[in-house]
Design goal:
This protein is of the alpha/beta class. Helix content is 26%, strand content 27%. The protein contains 19 helices and 42 strands. Strands 29, 30, 31, 32, 33, 34, 35, 40, 41 and 42 form a ten-stranded mixed beta sheet that branches. Helix 1 packs parallel to helix 2 and helix 3 crosses helix 4.
Length: 747
Amino acid sequence: MTELLAPAGDMEALKAAVSNGCDAVYLGMQKFGARAYSSNFDAALLSEAVRYAHLRNVKIYVTMNTIVFEDEIEAMKAQLYMLNEMGVDGVIVQDLAVFDYIASHFEDMEVHCSTQMGIDDLEGTLLFKEMGADRVVLSREVPIETVKEIRKAAKIPLEIFVHGALCVSYSGNCLMSGLIGYRSGNRGRCVGSCRKPYELLDRETGESLGCGYLLSTKDLNTIDRIADLKEIDSLKIEGRMKEPAYVANVVAKYREALDNRVTTEEKDDLKKTFNRTFTKGYLFHEDPKDLTNIDKPNNYGYEIGTISAFRAGMYEISLTRALNQNDIIRIDHDGEDVNLSVVKLYDRDGMLISRADRTCYIKLKEKLSVGDVVYKTKDYHFYKELEKNLEKEFRRFPLNMKVYAYPGAALVIDAEGLGCRYLYESEETLEEAAKNPTTKEQVVKQLSKLGDTIFAAGDVEFEAYNAFIPVKMLNQARRAIVEALYDAKLAEKKRRTKTPEAKEKISFAQRKPYITASVTTKEQYDACVKCGVKEIYFDNIIRRNQISYERREGELLIGGYGGIYYYRNHNPFVTDYSMNVVNAESCRKLYSLGAKRVTLSYELNRKQLGELLDAYEAENDGYPALEMIVYGRAPLMFTKYCPMKKMGQCGICKTKSYELKDEYGVFPVLSSADCATTILNGKILNLLDEMPSIEGVEAFRLNFTIESAEEVEQIAKAAIGKLQGSCADTLFRRETDTRGHFNKEII
């Protein structure tokens, strides 16, 4: 059966999800979850959530999908043991250290690969199946046909997003928030840099090609394609930052769709809670240029009419949909929003009304124009209906009972519910009835008072002989049976742990530090060769989210897990920054998969690097082989979406160069041959002066992107000189450069 997986940022949202028909809920705690700004759950609340869900046959998955620094490893382990003891069904992870710990220590608590891992192919899926994954959450960029092919070939449960907000970047591969504002998406603290306005510029001429919310995606909506989706194991709704009413609305509609009952009107109701307008997403082949809504980055609402006149101090609205008192509307006036809670609504004569279907009037101080479009962003009555369903029981479970009542004996009830049995016996003995023995109808009446439970009365058999059963005794029996069956149901959940196998200790001989380089053009490559750089990544780069693989010769730089699976038995390889490695165990795991060297995350600072090295040496009796990017424009975002195509520049990128501009600076844009886009930092990461003092790193990489051959040669020579001790000049330029995270800690 296809699982409907719902989000919960707090207990109210969790109850809304369960009450409207989800099969599972995913949520986060205060630490290690990729939505740090939602309310989240503490230990006590999570325990309550697990109990609430499990009694209703709903699973609980906890997100621990941030990268985990070395000084957090013990806290991570402790939290996992706590989750297992609570009976959590699964944990969604990004970090290899967290993944490996769950897979090796817990028998019944599943480990799910987060979309933050960037798995979008069969090869990556097979790699994690081999390592013990119970489920893979595929990237949002994977088309439905590929999802089905992976499911058939890998034979492992797959999860995909089907509704809600979209990251414009491949998840886990966006560094924009972290490198610009020190609030990392990989730490659950994304500030939403993609929801800001940008201007697209021709980098050579400075010509503006247009402004808008150029990176702000629409919301995913696939409810019209539910028949295709039923073949997938789990359908995930995004929304841990959303209000309970949103969760209730979306879960209810997808439940109806999965059960083949949804109507066109109900599908349309999805517009009545938060939306940025809708897209079918890459999942169903949306043209990338149509993935974004560049006019507005927040709640769009839905159109209900236009301003048609101004009369007697009131604006007239010609309606295509009803407007009610207390609804919230926005009016698009010259590209600016005028927002209004409709406290007072008037007819043509200036009389107050509570509802209008065709024409109504409002009073506003703001100036509007005839033709301004009116949108409803909150339907008051619709929300009231949703709120009624936030804590209802979606289904009740039958409680079957056999009642035995004989004078001189205890009241005995053999009860069955939730797949469990309980034999109740009263402490008091029953007395013989003087005149009117208790009837079956009376027993059924009292035992059926189950309104505050998850049960509904099932079959009741009654075997008695002239016994009188006090009402108080029946009520007490009913309450005891309910609690006993609850306890029995919860006790069914297994919480087994296992003893992990001894880990292979992997260490490397220390080498004298040297320079490597990654380049984007043949001219840059030749300049690096001219300077004596021995290891250069150019046509041997296998990026994360590669479209396909083909046999290669020689050493490779691999950025994704699918690439590791495909090439590990044929090519020596180095793993790239996109693996987001920030701890020792992740390094060791990659070495065990065949990596000869591991490139560290851009989000690691000097202190954390030292802690990683100490931990690695303590666990492996030796040193890791590390690479570190010390120069270049960091890739802030890697995306399948193309802002140039959105702005009518499709194909011209082969002859022109572009950049995005905001109020703080510019961000160069690179286009790949397959139309994927990399947005670069306008500031240049420059740690060249720090290289001689950085211990434990053997390879220092220069990352060249838009530099000329002359610039590459100049920088490479200076870097080699700095590392060899022959360059005493300061290489850091305050006006153009940044040290990134190296001397600061992200949050």
